[in-house]
Amino acid sequence: MEQGLLEKTGKSLDHWIGVVKASGIEKHKAIIDFLKAEHGFTHGFANFVALKARSADAGSMDDLDLMSNQYEGKADLKPIYDKLREEMEKFGSDITITPKKDSVSFIRKRQFALVKPATKTRIDLGLKLKGIPNEGRLEDSGPFGAMCTHRIRIESLDMVDQEVIDWLKQAYEMSV
Fold first, then answer.
1. pLDDT: is 48 or 58 the higher one?
2. What is the dihedral of CA 29, 127, 96, 70, to 10 degrees?
3. Which of 139, 110, 135, 108 is nearest to 126 (CA)?
4. How confident is the model at residue 146 (pLDDT cuts 50, 70, 90)?
5. Rg (CA), the chain
6. In terms of C-beta density within 10 A (0-12 exposed, 13-18 middle, 19 or more buried), how is residue 129 classed?
């Protein structure tokens, strides 16, 4: 993520942390809004810099640490995450993948999917599908609240089928 920030902006993470500190802004969302409005950041990069600038728990860890911690004791779920990520990366090169402390956000212009190892045996896939009714495995967002409109519970690799991929694609296409 740090290398991507440098490539995208031409400035280092330390530079952007200095910009945030100099602004006097302390609240996470306010930092994100500032970086997006004043410096043209995508949400993913703005969130990353905000976390680092605030020295939040997730921001003090790199992406590999975040992923390792998420799947500690849940190693059987990691192939499900890997398959979901692989399928989403096929949609386009405009996706920002943002690991957090307990989940991973997939963002185009805004978040369209969230992958969270919910239990030792289940991943919850959150989707933003406004106006799409709940049907079958496509449930109400449940614990995701306003971050997503729907949730799919995935307990095995074979549950990442064409139906799930189609819903992911639809959420991706709606996130412009």
1. 48
2. 80
3. 139
4. confident
5. 17
6. buried
